[in-house]
Write a structure and sequence with these properties.
- By secondary structure, the protein is of the alpha+beta class.
- It has seven helices and six strands.
- It has a three-stranded antiparallel beta sheet with strand order 1-2-3. Strands 5-4-6 form a three-stranded antiparallel beta sheet.
- Strand 4 and strand 5 form a beta hairpin.
- Helix 1 packs across helix 2, helix 2 packs parallel to helix 6 and helix 3 packs across helix 4.
């Protein structure tokens, strides 16, 4: 069986012109990474070609339906990697330059099974952050995504009495609106006899992780937000 010349990386909305036939005004294109003679990816985001589905099907020798299904699956995997990257940055970026003991406490608190195994928490934190930032900086299927502490937004997270998340709400940048949101969150928390946390994160799912984290993680999270917006 011949080795294909391309692999599908995802679906792209930002390019509306087929890089093969030149057709314009496409609703989306398929991101194709070139492969070498051994079938390994041979390039970076700059080498990716963006084809319409019919041209992508011709290049791969597939049906358009298979191209569409494969592209959607690849994009779903990319989105999952992005979500994981946002969570890692939301948790660990605030402690990146914290004292070593605090880094150890935060990392091993989330990964207790690695304590005493020879895994160095500070190296793991640095590795996780580097990988997460590289993931969000990848422009294969679209523009780079926010990845800095300065990109964090504030969220109110309401817990039920049994520590299940009841609500995650992005807090407005407008002070008056934010105050109204905060008052409403407090009232709702009292109604369900739950608890309320205000955290900073790259998105709502990451805010859940931060809110569930230990006191030390949330303390550094709050300090990072205050420093970034001083």
């Amino acid at each position: 069986m011949p080795i294909p010349k391309w692999t599908i990386k995802g679906i792209v909305d930002d390019y509306d012109t087929c890089g093969c036939c030149g057709r314009r005004g496409l609703k989306r294109t398929v991101a194709l990474m070139p492969l070498d003679a051994d079938g390994n990816e041979d390039g970076t985001a700059e080498d990716v070609a963006y084809y319409g589905t019919s041209c992508a099907a011709a290049a791969l020798g597939w049906t358009q339906g298979k191209v569409t299904d494969t592209a959607r699956a690849a994009q779903a995997e990319q989105d999952q990697r992005d979500a994981y990257a946002r969570r890692m940055i939301s948790i660990y970026a605030p402690v990146e330059f914290a004292p070593v003991w605090d880094q150890l406490s935060v990392y091993y608190g989330r990964n207790p099974g690695q304590r005493g195994t020879g895994v160095r928490a500070t190296e793991e934190v640095a590795k996780l952050l580097a990988e997460a930032r590289a993931q969000l900086a990848d422009t294969t299927t679209g523009p780079a995504r926010p990845s800095r502490i300065e990109d964090f937004r504030r969220y109110a997270v309401i817990f039920t009495r049994d520590r299940r998340v009841h609500l995650v709400q992005h807090l407005s940048d407008d002070e008056t609106e934010r105050q109204a949101q905060g008052d409403a969150a407090v009232r709702r928390t009292e109604e369900i006899r739950g608890s309320l946390a205000v955290v900073a994160a790259l998105d709502g799912e990451s805010a859940r992780d931060v809110a569930y984290a230990d006191d030390l993680t949330r303390m550094w999270n709050a300090q990072a937000w205050q420093t970034a917006h001083a």
